[in-house]
């Protein structure tokens, strides 16, 4: 299994975990207005919210790092010079017969 495939599996797992963590979070509602008003939460709920926030940021950071590392590890086996599409179009192009020129007629006086 290539390193790119390993990165692809890891990215898929991290994406799934990120979706689960985001779906578990309670909607805070109100955006910035709720944080400015400073509504107090209970201690247990606050710790759970902090854990979910930290895990969201951690998973997002891991996801970005995996994407960057996978792009660096990509060997480029199908680069521009080795492209299968280019090879197919070159072989499928109609071959033209070489143009034959008639020998020059001898000059008559």
Automatic annotation (TrEMBL):
It is found in: Cell membrane. The chain crosses the membrane at residues 6-24, 56-74. GO terms for biological process: intracellular protein transmembrane transport; protein secretion; protein transport by the Sec complex. Coiled coil: none annotated. It is a multi-pass membrane protein. InterPro entries: SecG. Residues 90-109 are annotated as: Disordered. GO terms for molecular function: protein-transporting ATPase activity. GO terms for cellular component: plasma membrane. Residues 91-109 have a biased composition (Low complexity). Keywords: Cell membrane, Membrane, Protein transport, Translocation, Transmembrane, Transmembrane helix, Transport. Signal peptide: none annotated. Involved in protein export. Participates in an early event of protein translocation. PANTHER family: PROTEIN-EXPORT MEMBRANE PROTEIN SECG. Belongs to the SecG family. This is Protein-export membrane protein SecG. It comes from Flavobacterium restrictum.
